[in-house]
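Hey all, quick one. A colleague (J.T.) asked me to put the heme C job into the tracker so the inputs and the structure tokens live in one place instead of scattered across chat threads. No bug as far as I know, just bookkeeping. Sequence used:
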Amino acid sequence: MRSLAIASLLVLVAPTAILRAQQPSSGPAADSILVTPATIESGRKIFHGVGTCVTCHGAALEGSAVAPTLRAHQWRDATDGELAPIYHVVTHGVPGTLMVSHPGGISDQMAREVAAYIWAVNHRGEKP
Ligand code: HEC
């Protein structure tokens, strides 16, 4: 258990595991999004729980009849599947579609975590 804790700590401080998405404009999106094991795990819980994402996007992010996959694909709204665009979609929705802003009533902080999770599944080989 102790070695596991030390291992997670090492992952946390390893610079490659941390990505800061900085946006120049003001507002919540201007805050940096940290991709750490803790935010990924938290985002996973939100995706499969309170955020209700799983009902439309599938347990493995594979998509469904009503919503697109969130694995690598031709991203329609979240440009190139990058972190900040994913966060933008989650906090603004896609007007005129089933994708509402802040699904499940999640906070901006939760939206950051769920964005970090989706990004990490695609870019860090994290399990969905
Ligand atoms: C009620 C169904 C529904 C729920 C719940 C839902 N989505 Fe979506 N989502 C959609 C649909 C439909 C689209 C595609 C919108 C369009 O037509 O462009 C979408 C698009 C997206 C995209 C952009 C995909 C792309 O190709 O660019 C992301 C990212 C996303 N959703 C994340 C989430 C997250 C994270 C949650 C949970 C916090 C969530 N969605 C909850 C239906 C849903």
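Adding what we noticed when we looked at it: The pocket of heme C is lined by residues 51-53, 55-57, 66-68, 70, 75-78, 86, 89-90, 94, 97-99, 103-104, 106, 114 (CB under 6 Å). The two ends are 24 Å apart (CA to CA).
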